[in-house]
């Protein structure tokens, strides 16, 4: 086994265990994790976009937006955090448009801000928050793993060659099946939710995760970047590891918020976890 692979495995296991530990305890520690994760995603995104030149003003708006959104996450004001992230993105988009420039910085604020809020809000439930986040991890991690090995084993037609040349339809199907099985098992071990609902939710989150993977691959190709950063030894940047989780987490947040009976009460936990995997 090569030294590079050993480093990759060691850093992956260490990071995974640390995240699971923080997820178990929840509370302010998990909100802080979501905030740090959001800030790192923002920095990596803007650093990549910097290759097309970002003004100091856009950087300042982005940083202030993420800081304000982070404070909302820590205070448990998820809805306000989403509104601030959207407002910052709109301001960035306006400034860039007036100068005839693209909207990638604005997209980055939505990408980082919305995912940070969603991640924190999913865990913000004493009863079901842990189960929902573990369910999310199980679906996404199994999808990624089965997609990788299924694609290598079966090969076949490419899924989206312009976005990600190595991904295949066989990998997509393998990932979907693996994600659903892992999600159903995780849900039944930790909750009393119905198997049919757990399977349907796993399908939606697996699909969202695979779309997120393709989205980030396409984003990096747009800027000629292989890795989003180098903060995780053997893996690259934070965005390289959480691309699937970002889309899946926000999809879970939206689904939970749309279900009937959900309460969006600032600072009290918004009931999204209960809606997703409650009895």
Structure description:
The chain is an all-alpha fold and 279 residues long. It has one domain (12-277). It contains 10 helices and 2 strands. It has helices at 3-25, 27-49, 56-75, 78-98, 104-123, 129-154, 169-190, 195-222, 238-258, 272-277, and strands spanning 158-160, 164-168. The chain has a two-stranded antiparallel sheet with strand order 1-2. A hairpin with a 3-residue loop joins β1 and β2. The radius of gyration is 19 Å and the shape is globular. It starts with a helix and ends with a helix. The model is unreliable at 263-269 (pLDDT under 50). It catalyses: a 1,2-diacyl-sn-glycero-3-phosphate + CTP + H(+) = a CDP-1,2-diacyl-sn-glycerol + diphosphate.
Question: Any descriptors?
Answer:
single chain; 279 residues; mainly alpha; two-stranded antiparallel ribbon; 10 helices; 3% strand
């Amino acid at each position: 086994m090569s030294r590079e692979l050993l480093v990759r495995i060691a850093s992956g296991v260490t990071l995974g265990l640390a995240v699971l530990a923080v997820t178990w305890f929840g509370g302010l520690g998990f909100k802080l994790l979501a905030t740090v994760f959001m800030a790192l995603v923002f920095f990596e995104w803007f650093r990549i976009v910097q290759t097309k030149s970002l003004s100091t003003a856009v950087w300042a708006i982005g940083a202030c937006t993420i800081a304000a959104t982070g404070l909302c996450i820590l205070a448990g004001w998820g809805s306000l955090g989403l509104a601030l992230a959207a407002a910052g993105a709109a301001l960035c988009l306006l400034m860039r448009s007036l100068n005839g420039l693209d909207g990638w910085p604005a997209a980055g604020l939505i990408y980082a801000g919305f995912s940070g809020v969603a991640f924190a809000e999913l865990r913000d439930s004493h009863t079901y928050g842990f189960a929902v986040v573990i369910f999310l991890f199980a679906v996404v991690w199994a999808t990624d793993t089965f997609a990788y090995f299924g694609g290598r084993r079966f090969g076949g037609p490419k899924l989206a060659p312009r976005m990600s040349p190595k991904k295949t339809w066989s990998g997509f199907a393998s990932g979907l099946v693996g994600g659903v099985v892992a999600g159903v098992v995780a849900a039944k071990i930790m909750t009393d939710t119905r198997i049919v609902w757990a399977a349907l939710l796993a399908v939606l989150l697996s699909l969202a995760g695979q779309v997120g993977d393709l989205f980030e691959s396409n984003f990096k190709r747009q800027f000629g970047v292989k890795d989003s950063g180098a903060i995780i030894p053997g893996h690259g940047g934070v965005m390289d590891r959480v691309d699937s989780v970002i889309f899946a987490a926000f999809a879970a947040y939206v689904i939970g918020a749309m279900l009937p009976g959900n309460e969006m009460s600032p600072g009290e936990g918004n009931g999204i976890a209960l809606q997703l995997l409650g009895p």
